[in-house]
Design brief:
This protein is an alpha/beta fold. Helices cover about 40% and strands about 20% of the residues. The protein has three domains: about 5-230, 3-Layer(aba) Sandwich (Rossmann fold); about 240-375, HAD superfamily/HAD-like (Rossmann fold); about 405-600, Gcn5-related N-acetyltransferase (GNAT) (Aminopeptidase), CATH 3.40.630.30. It has 25 helices and 22 strands. Helix 2 (about 40-45) crosses helix 11 (about 215-230) and helix 6 (about 105-130) runs parallel beside helix 8 (about 165-180).
């Protein structure tokens, strides 16, 4: 069983966890620009399996502006996955100046210094982004609040900014600066140290403003940084659906014995569930209860929270069986589920019979908000905000399919026709790039290359004219699937390389893979050889490899991957239950060869099976 603890315990246990390797961090490369305040943070990540470079250890500048301005900096050859910037050595002068010369300082002088220091921080972030398509993390300033002029200094200093005001303005300016830049994030030391207290995390006993981390404080900051990087990393485990028991989990008491009047709903627990839903995590229920009790749930949970529940299994079957039913209904893997239950026996049954599921107790519901597995990606897209609605539609499709298809091929075909599927294939619009990056990050079952291109990498490659992105939008009579397919393509000689090819699991079995392949073949310029991609097999994407083989892709070994090619002369059959938008777009693809256009040709769909 994977054990989780609350936020305060996470902070206290961070020091002991630093010696444990973390498989997801092995080989990740972190470049730290800063002084000795980053020493313990760096050591934490080294012990967790990451490869690090700390400028302080190599007698390099501790000022991010100076280090990133150097064209010969080791940063550029290090090829980092993440860059962490700390401005402590420079910004400390701003705060110490107030300590020694407070009454004589002019407020406009303080504000000018503040603008200059934060501005240089922004220049350093820009320098990194100009040469590297990687996330940049900005660390705020560590400080113990010991104002020279006492707690009332805001009044005694007149117009001069007090120490508390100055540090808060600095931190807010760093947040504003990060907001203005893509792929730039803030590591807030005050929040990282809040659970155990700033005083224990900084050297407050031996330094006036305590601007150096203790080993314990370094571990707490590093643990928060690891959680931030986990959220950014498309390869880390992300929970797609949180499943909750009912009795003694969402309320105190047993519903079938105590009745609605006899149970006490745990309001804080329901609020935590709403927070998870706001992040795009799906909510489901799995409880040993009579199915008829489902009628009481809207009154107990409230209409808004009950409306966010995408699936509910109330039965007397083993919980592991119910979880499998939910995963099948939503068409997601068991390892995308987290299950919360107060009963240790029920948790043990799930651990034994559905070991892929993340099993947690009812006490973990609130602390799940600080667990890395429940962190959303860097952008919560409109698609994520309506994800619950889309999965409720998916569950309705599954129920309709079971009632109509019954395992018979002809009936299954009739069901697909009854869906009235409508597919749109076209080039991506700028506002949709965040959703494309989210799709590439979250998709496991129908992801061919598993490269997980980030939003920043995607936009940078498009801006350089190196790649183009095509998307697929799907809808049917039950509702809009949304943007469910993406292909990132690059023209390499006579081949159109699919750098990324991924589809949402909600599109599985609908023929979208065939339609996108045919669409891309029809966009090939004269003399092209065809489509090409490197298929990287995982335990989850075997079905996609089978589908690609049926489409006509031919494979051959290529290092750790398999090179799949689809000849330009291939005639890809698209199922006739899929209605394709026939309107050609005719928008040139930048950097991919003259004459290559996107959109659907007028003859798209000819030759499809009747």
């Amino acid at each position: 069983m994977q054990t989780h603890v609350n936020a305060a315990d996470q902070t206290r246990q961070a020091a002991t966890s630093r010696s444990r390797p973390a498989p997801w961090l092995e080989g990740r490369r972190l470049y730290f620009i800063g002084g000795c305040e980053l020493t313990y943070v760096k050591e934490y990540f080294e012990a967790r399996g990451a490869v690090t470079y700390h400028t302080f250890d190599h007698q390099r500048p501790s000022d991010p502006f100076t280090e990133t301005a150097d064209p010969d900096s080791p940063l550029w050859a290090f090829a980092p996955d993440y860059v962490v910037l700390a401005q402590v050595q420079v910004a400390s002068g701003l705060f110490h100046r107030l300590q020694w010369a407070g009454p004589s300082l002019d407020r406009s002088e303080q504000e000018a210094d503040l603008d200059a220091i934060v501005g240089s921080f922004g220049v350093a972030a820009d320098a990194v982004h100009a040469r590297l398509a990687v996330p940049v993390v900005l660390m705020t300033h560590p400080i113990v609040h010991r104002p020279t002029y006492g707690l009332l200094e805001q009044r005694s200093l007149g117009e001069t900014l007090s120490l508390a005001e100055l540090i808060r303005r600095y931190e807010l300016a760093v947040y504003d600066m990060a907001r203005e830049r893509d792929d730039t994030y803030v590591l807030d030391l005050g929040l990282a140290l809040a659970d155990d207290g700033v005083a224990s995390g900084l050297r407050g006993a031996t330094e006036l403003l305590g601007e150096h981390l203790t080993r314990e404080g370094g571990a707490a900051v590093a643990a928060r940084l690891e959680r931030l990087l986990w959220a950014l990393d498309g390869r880390s485990r992300k929970i797609k659906c949180a499943v909750f028991d009912l009795d003694n989990t969402l309320w105190s008491g047993v519903l079938r014995e105590d009745g609605v009047e006899g149970v006490q709903v745990r309001t804080v627990t329901l609020r935590a569930m709403k927070y998870l839903a706001a992040r795009g995590v799906l909510l489901a229920l799995c409880s040993k209860n009579d199915p008829v009790e489902a009628e009481l749930l809207p009154g107990l949970l409230g209409a808004d929270l009950h409306g966010a529940i995408v699936s509910a299994v109330l039965s007397w079957d083993p919980k592991s069986q119910g979880l499998r039913q939910i995963a099948e209904e939503l068409n997601i893997g068991l390892d995308s589920l987290a299950f919360f239950d107060d009963n240790p026996r029920e948790r043990a049954e799930v651990e034994m019979n559905a070991p892929e599921v993340l099993v947690l107790s009812d006490a973990d519901i609130l602390s799940s908000l600080t667990m890395p597995e429940f962190e959303p990606g860097p952008t919560i897209t409109g698609e994520a905000q309506r994800r619950a609605e889309q999965y409720r539609e998916q569950a309705a499709r599954k129920r309709a399919e079971r009632s109509l298809a019954g395992g018979d091929h002809d009936q299954a075909d009739a069901f697909l026709h009854s869906l009235e599927l409508r597919l749109e294939l076209r080039p991506v619009q700028p506002a949709e790039l965040a959703r494309v990056a989210e799709l590439l990050e979250r998709t496991n079952q129908l992801n061919a290359t598993t490269r997980r291109t980030s939003f920043a990498e995607l936009r940078a490659a498009i801006d350089r004219g190196e790649v183009a992105v095509h998307i697929a939008n799907l809808e049917d009579r039950f509702g809009d699937y949304g943007l469910i397919g993406a292909a990132v393509v690059r023209l390499d000689g006579e081949w159109l390389d699919l750098e990324e090819f991924a589809l949402s699991c909600r599109a599985m079995g609908r023929g979208v893979e065939q339609a996108m392949s045919r669409y891309l073949v029809e966009q090939l310029p004269d003399g092209a050889g065809g489509l090409r991609l490197e298929f990287r097999e995982t335990p989850r994407n075997g079905q996609l490899r089978k589908i690609l083989g049926e489409i006509g892709f031919v494979g051959r070994p290529s290092g750790e991957a398999e090179e799949l090619t689809l000849d330009w002369r291939s005639s890809v059959a698209v199922p006739n239950w899929l209605s394709i938008d026939p309107t050609p777009t005719r928008t040139p693809l930048p950097g991919l060869g003259e004459g290559l256009t996107v959109g659907l040709g007028k003859d798209f769909g000819e030759g499809m099976p009747p």
